[in-house]
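Attaching the record inline, Q. Sequence:
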Amino acid sequence: MGKKVTVISTSLRHGSNSAVLADAFAMGASEAGNEVTLISLTGKDIHFCTGCLACQKTGKCVIHDDMNDMQEIVRTSDVLVFATPIYYYEMSGQMKTFLDRLNPLYIADCQFKDVYLLASAAEEDEYAMKRAKSGLEGWIECFPQSHFAGSVFAGGMTNPGMAKGSAAFEEARKAGMNV
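Structure, as predicted:
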């Protein structure tokens, strides 16, 4: 049996380019025989972390929303993949909120080792994702067993769905095949 791969698509836009990359990565990982869970944040009820730090004592968040189930999926995954649109040269707000709400995992026994970033932007230069990558790397540093395993950037994506069939689409599919 392959690895347990969880792909989190953080865009709320229907047919978004980062969602297209998430689908491509998931497809490749599945084709390679891995167990793939694809989570879309569209329609999810996710509240902001309040910083109460109760989770650091109990291992559970005091906020009861859709994050509770997703935290457990993340904790038991071997590979995590975050797909985000780039807004103002940074990850989407919903991705940042998702990462913040994974705070209960800080004291948990997490399995994930490899963490990937998939990003799309209207900007053509890969530099556009530099801060998003840095932000994710900061989160990864809190989990000693894990490391940044790679990224795929789809630049020049000015309309939804443009990433389908692009070089970045194929790169994301191949990255999924090689987890």
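The mean pLDDT is 97. The first strand starts at residue 4 and ends at 9.

More tomorrow.
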